[in-house]
# Entry
Amino acid sequence: MYEYNIRRIASYTRRALDDYEMIKTGDKIAVGVSGGKDSVTLLCALANIRNFYPEKFEIEAITMDPGFYKAGMGDEKEQRESFEKIAKLCSELQVHFTLFETDIAKIIFDIRKESNPCSLCARMRRGALHENAKKLGCNKIALGHHFDDAVETFMLNLFNEGRIGCFSPVTYLDRRDITLIRPLIYAREKDIKYFINHSDLPIFSSPCPEDKHSDREEMKIMLKELERKNKGLKYRIFGAMQRAGVDGYKINKPPFSDKDGE
# Structure
């Protein structure tokens, strides 16, 4: 189905796991699977690596239903069928699958009528994911943020807040007693798209009305234009993050570069 195409993604993932010591033997890792390209790619990569990685670990796939159809967004039957496709994929990958429902969309759009809903939605989704991962006995959560996400986040923090910062490759949440890992931070978005486009995998878009209308989308467009005029710019930004040790990105080896990404 996708075994040949996963090799490049798995290579990037394996390097990130090694560089940042993301996984230890005995870990039970929850993979948050939204149905988007990034989370499905992450699930496939970890399921592939699980078969040969020296540190032995378990995977739990967790899908959260934000309840958009309860808020009148999207078709309930269509969304249910999408979740069923994810469940089928998990069965093929021999990964236990859990779907949990929430009223997040209803709370944000119907009850609170948030004019800028993304921040609150993200907090509520994180809280629900952390809670359900703990219920399943997981000590780690793998998130699908990739190379481009890291560069965009760094630039958004610089432009919007005037600070140097990014999400971390590995983050321990002491209040939750759970660790977040981001195994795709070396995988470029175009490699993920290539993998998805050449694999028969269930991918579906979010019915959220704010999807593709955010500061992040504007930054993505701006960086794409800058990269066109300054080839390798994203790698230089990412390399600077590693050399400076921004938010846990420091590694004791040469930074990830465009030579590694080609």
